[in-house]
């Protein structure tokens, strides 16, 4: 196989080919996959992963990780429900949830950027801390939603498509624009490529990293609100393992674990591939225990693909 062919197959065109092949195989082999109901269900099922992947892409592109996203999503959902119930105002509940997500993200960013603590260790710690807050605030139990209007955040539709899917599409468009057409996006990729060279070139590396993690917290707040609405309660144990699914989707989509490389189109394809795999397993009634094995295999394959891409592009 020539180097040019390798680059083609491992680039964005290769991702599209993988997606088309996966979609075709699942369509042929899995009963009821192509039904309208299942297609809408598939889109709804990738909303949480897709929303969080929008900013996880920036974390990975800047050579960082965020393992706390699942806990932030669960905590934000709890805050949204509890604040809405307490104040009898859904807008206040939504603002409180997004604000809490932003604060946790900001803390992650400050600790990582200013105190020079490894992102893996920092977010592993906040993953435990924030999950603990979610459990303590609810006494370890699910919190029911008082207002039926809260359900409409997930149940309402526009042009026949669920509102959360529209939210996901808007966030894809916004963060795709930010990555490709703003100084912030270019600085993120530059930091991932070479942090020290970026600092010498005048990029405020610390501030950029803090903003990346703050934005990560904001989108986790949004994801938590929509998830709580969809499952009709605030669940302190929601979104367990979300961080692995999000990282897998990003890496499948061509975001480099070594930093400096990311595309929104690739992330979208990665999210859809993960969604198809989950959907197919559910339609085939594969037990949940076996699904963990499949997810682990997908993560390993994603890392292998990242290594192959780096080699094809001449990077170590």
TrEMBL record:
Location (main, coarse): membrane
GO molecular function: hydrolase activity; transmembrane transporter activity
EC number: 3.6.3.17
Membrane topology, from the record: Multi-pass membrane protein
UniProt cross-references to InterPro entries, sorted A to Z: ABC_transp_permease (IPR001851)
Keywords: Cell membrane, Hydrolase, Membrane, Transmembrane, Transmembrane helix
Record GO cellular component, one term: plasma membrane
Top-rank taxon: Bacteria
Record-annotated membrane-spanning stretches: 14-34, 40-60, 67-86, 92-112, 119-138, 158-179, 210-232, 265-283, 289-308
Pfam families assigned to the protein according to its UniProt record, in alphabetical order: BPD_transp_2 (PF02653)
Localization in the cell: Cell membrane
Protein name per UniProt: L-arabinose ABC transporter permease AraH
Annotated organism of origin: Mesorhizobium hawassense
């Amino acid at each position: 196989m020539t180097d040019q062919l390798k680059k083609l197959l491992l680039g964005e065109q290769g991702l599209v080919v993988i997606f088309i092949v996966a979609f075709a195989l699942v369509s042929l082999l899995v009963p009821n996959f192509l039904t309208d109901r299942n297609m809408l269900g598939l889109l709804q099922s990738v909303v949480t992963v897709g929303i969080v992947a929008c900013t996880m892409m920036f974390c990975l592109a800047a050579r960082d990780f965020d393992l706390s996203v699942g806990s932030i999503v669960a905590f934000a959902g709890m805050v949204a429900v509890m604040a809405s119930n307490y104040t009898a105002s859904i807008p206040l509940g939504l603002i409180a949830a997004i604000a809490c997500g932003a604060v946790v993200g900001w803390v992650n960013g400050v600790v990582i950027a200013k105190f020079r603590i490894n992102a893996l260790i920092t977010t592993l710690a906040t993953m435990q801390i924030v999950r603990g807050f979610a459990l303590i605030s609810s006494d370890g139990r699910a919190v029911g939603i008082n207002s039926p209007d809260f359900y409409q955040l997930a149940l309402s539709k526009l042009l026949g498509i669920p509102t959360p899917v529209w939210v996901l599409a808007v966030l894809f468009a916004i963060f795709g624009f930010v990555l490709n057409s703003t100084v912030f996006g270019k600085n993120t990729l530059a930091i991932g490529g070479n942090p020290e060279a970026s600092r010498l070139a005048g990029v405020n590396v610390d501030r950029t990293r803090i903003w990346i993690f703050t934005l990560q917290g904001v989108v986790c707040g949004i994801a938590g609100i929509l998830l709580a609405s969809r499952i009709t309660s605030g669940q302190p144990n929601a979104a367990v393992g979300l961080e692995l699914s999000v990282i897998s989707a990003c890496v499948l989509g061509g975001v480099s674990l070594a930093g400096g490389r990311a595309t929104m189109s690739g992330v979208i394809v990665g999210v859809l591939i993960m969604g198809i795999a989950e959907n197919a397993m559910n339609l085939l009634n594969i037990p949940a225990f076996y699904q963990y094995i499949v997810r682990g295999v997908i993560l390993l394959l994603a890392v292998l693909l990242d290594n192959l891409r780096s080699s094809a592009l001449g990077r170590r």
